[in-house]
Design brief:
The protein has about 240 residues and is of the alpha/beta class. Strands 2-1-3-4-5-6-7 form a seven-stranded mixed β-sheet, with helices on both faces. Helix 3 links the parallel strand 4 and strand 5.
């Protein structure tokens, strides 16, 4: 497959690492600012991985060489397919929302397009490096961004809060942070299995035990409300970005 990747920052480089590791895409053309913005004549997919504020300026110089049949694959948060399709003169667009764990072939990627061939192409690009999840409506990409793309940062923030509480409970900063990071790795390895989240919790929280006591305290502190506030704020930010905010 002939692929052009526009933007090679955190996510773009994670995607190419994943492709190298899995062998699913060979020799993509990587366009950075230092490379002339030229697409090979047989380009099947243009993957756009620049920041949402930079895409119009970044794609404009490609229009002269981009084949008309190239499918546009956007991994950008908050940029609507219709805006991309108009700027890219009617080319088919598929939106994909991956996590940076695609670098290790362990990502998750939500996919939406109203164009069946574009959707199929996104699967060819991402099935080898992510658990791919099809969405029924473009608006759901914003929710997927919140619960997948942004959520690793939410877990880190919870880990930071737990490490801080560990220090308050007498641990040194260094010890609290190492222990919390280890706990996060342990949670990650559980998440990598097929076990339901309820079962993963039940395996650690025996009735009357320390974990159960902590979980009850989290529920009393309204963890559901905090999770809901984070997701709603991320969704509303994505909607504002789509309107040019
Ligand atoms: N990071 C994540 O976890 C994540 C997850 C899901 C989705 N996303 C989406 O992925 C996109 C990229 O995010 P990121 O975190 O990878 O940002 P990033 O690290 O800032 O990478 C963006 C890259 O695009 C390059 N770029 C900007 N204008 C360009 C141009 N005209 N031609 C070629 N390259 C250009 C930037 O180069 P300069 O440094 O020279 O400006 C930078 O290397 C965003 O739209 C974001 O919504 C990110």
């Amino acid at each position: 497959m002939t692929v052009v990747l526009l933007g090679h920052g955190r996510l773009g480089s994670a995607i190419t690492e994943g492709w190298n590791l899995s062998g699913s895409v060979a020799n993509p053309t990587i366009l950075t600012r230092a490379v002339p913005p030229v697409c090979p004549p047989e380009t099947e997919a243009l993957v756009i991985a620049v920041k949402p504020a930079a895409w119009r300026e970044a794609v404009a110089p490609l229009l002269d060489t981009l084949p008309a049949k190239t499918v546009v694959v956007s991994v950008m948060a908050g940029v609507r397919a219709e805006d991309l399709s108009v700027a890219l003169t009617g080319r088919a667009v598929v939106r994909v929302m991956p996590t940076t764990a695609v670098a290790q072939g362990q990502g998750v990627a939500a996919i939406w397009s109203d164009h069946a061939e574009a959707r199929a192409l996104a699967h060819r690009l991402f099935d080898g490096i992510a658990d791919t999840v099809d969405l029924d409506a473009e608006a759901l990409i914003d929710a997927a961004t919140a619960v997948a793309g942004s959520a690793p940062a939410f877990f880190y923030a919870l880990a930071q809060a737990l490490a801080k509480a560990g220090v308050e409970a007498g641990l040194t900063q260094n010890v609290a942070e190492r222990l919390t990071r280890g706990a996060l790795r342990s949670a990650g390895s559980g998440a990598a299995t097929d076990a339901p989240l309820e079962d993963l919790i039940a395996r650690i929280a025996s009735p009357g035990g320390t974990t159960r006591a902590g979980l009850d305290a989290l529920a009393a502190a309204d963890l559901n409300r905090a999770g809901s506030a984070a997701v709603r704020a991320a969704v509303s930010r994505a909607q504002a970005l789509a309107k040019g905010g």
